[in-house]
What does this fold into?
Amino acid sequence: MKLPSRLAALLAAAAVVTACAPQTSTNSSSEKDDKSGTLRVWLFQEVGNKPKEKVVDSVVAAFEKAHKGTKVDVEYIPIDTRAQRVKAAFNDPKSAPDVMEFGNTDTAGYVKDGGLLDVTKEFGAWSEAKDTDPTAKTSVTVDGKIYGAPFYVGVRALYYRTDVFKDLGLEPPKTMAELATTARRIRAAKPDLYGLVVGGAYTYGAMPFVWANGGELATGKNGSYASAIESADAQKGVKAYTSLFTDDNCPAAKCAGMGGNDTITAFAAGKAGMAIGGDFSHTAVEAGKVKGEYGVVPLPGVTAGSIAPAFAGGNNIGVLKSTSHRTLAVDLMEQLTSKKTQASMFDAMGFLPTFADVRSQVAAKAPYVKPFAQTLAAGTKFVPASPAWSQIDSQLVLPTMLQEVISGKKDVAAASKEAAKKMNAAFSSVG
Amino acid sequence: MNLRTDLRWTPWLYLAPALILLGGLLVYPIYQLGLISFFHYTQAQVSGGEPTTFEGFGNYTELFSDSEFWQVLLATVLFASACVVSTLAVGCALAVLLTRVRAVPRLALMLAALGAWATPAVTGSTVWLFLFDPDFGPVNRVLGLGDHSWTYGRLSAFFLVLLEVVWCSFPFVMVTVYAGIRAVPSEVLEAAALDGASQWRIWRSVLAPMLRPILTVVTIQSVIWDFKVFTQIYVMTNGGGIAGQNLVLNVYAYQQAFASSQYGLGSAVGVVMLLILLAVTLVYLRLLRRQGEEL
It folds into this structure.
């Protein structure tokens, strides 16, 4: 009789377990659409946030004037802990903001979490929206619906040392093959410099090599993606990037562990002939030792004159599903991401506008923007608009692949196959 | 109500405050951990974007069928064992040393150890990493190693982390064992010395058996502590080393599950860790009991 009674106890325990599921919050969309009251806004707290606050304050003042009886309460949240803040906001709609800024790679994840409001109709009716950059628009689109408005974009290009290039009689490289030979010539002539500083954990520095060779991260649409990193073209790109981790350019022992910031730090400190950095790295490089002795060109593609597609990073502003001021919140979102705001935000913070026409206006004023604007105009790429991306990103699938090749643990074929397996597992786990 | 039943409930009444506190702080979280590990529970479920589904042992099968999990588990066990042995060796050796030096060097050693103990793990890890930095670190300069990178090789990276772990956890062993040695009656030690026992022999045949309860506690503490090491690996190997070669279970759980909000899977790792630690502790206690010593 002992066994059956134990079994019964086990079954009873199982029944108890299934009966009480862990807690969930009811994050249904609010039915209310109040036309007055307080709107809460969360924006990111940037390094040197004052100029941003000034621009936002003027937008808010105009908004409050236009809508009688409304008050806008803006809070700047630290970027490091934003993930926790946003999760908490989704879990407890009462403490959530109405409008918030978020990184564009997070869009699909937040939509799946049930946090963002579908604004397809309003976005379509918005007069300024037609000038939005196509990639920027992709970054707010999930399953054909639009969940927010692009706030700014960020792309990477090739930084190079003008003094070193002059010394050695070099020209900025025109093709990806030339990029590698130029890098090696710099290192050969000046052994204390990296030729082109690269990082094994620098995913967005490696991706242009994959894209330029005709490869993709993943293919598919509308939620069901499949990895493409193991395709022949993508492998060619991975090979091109990882072959830069040699003693005659950037020794594996030092460069395999580097991330994007490490490479910029090395370049800014004058330890590299070239680096792949963003428009957002401009300030850091200006503050470094190499100030006044560097130039920027678009990262060259495979054929001469072409530009390697860059990753279009940046931030969006969206409305939360739980808002009780739907109309007002969407209006405020449009004001915060309007052409006028983006133009003044560029002057204040150097954020690149997401509207093509506004971008060419600012490029005329600030010459350093030109190579980045060119890169954007040549066409950029975005990560798969799938909630699985945040999982792939935090599981370090791509850095692991790169580092396995760089350290010689696996060849490109085996490493990319392994990465594809992990990516597909992530894609299928989110359904 | 008669007196007899009253008496039967009295002990429970006195225990109640402690039990309620323990129940709230220990049992309930562990219950939640176990519960969540049986569900498909991600951020989408927490915030109500999708319904919660019961998965049975789904998270566990996913975990156990991942070959990387087994590699990481093996690496964790070996790394934790090496850390425990080294920490105990260094801690005990310095505790004995403390009893044999004069007041001033003893005070200096104590202060140095307490300094190491009080240093936050993140700070300690960053400083150690800087000491061994290929470009700017003093260690390479003193040893004349040029720009040798300590974190590139798997074993050398683990070794570097081991040094930091031992450095920040030996003080606990040293102070506890030192207190234990102080409590040993000096006649016993004198008698052993009169019999001509060497320093090593005194430790092995007199001190270690008398200190057994204390050694048990510090060993179990070290096992638990070193098995769960997170900060040192996360900071010093930049989240698990080149291609994840320096992952330990805790960092693995964080990367695979918690960082991407897969709380169900992460809880399954937590439950597995809990069971392993419980098993290790029970086996260790059983072994000691068998040797005839009651704790």
Q: What stands out?
A: Chain A has two domains: 37-154+312-381, 156-311+384-429. The first strand of chain A starts at residue 37 and ends at 45.
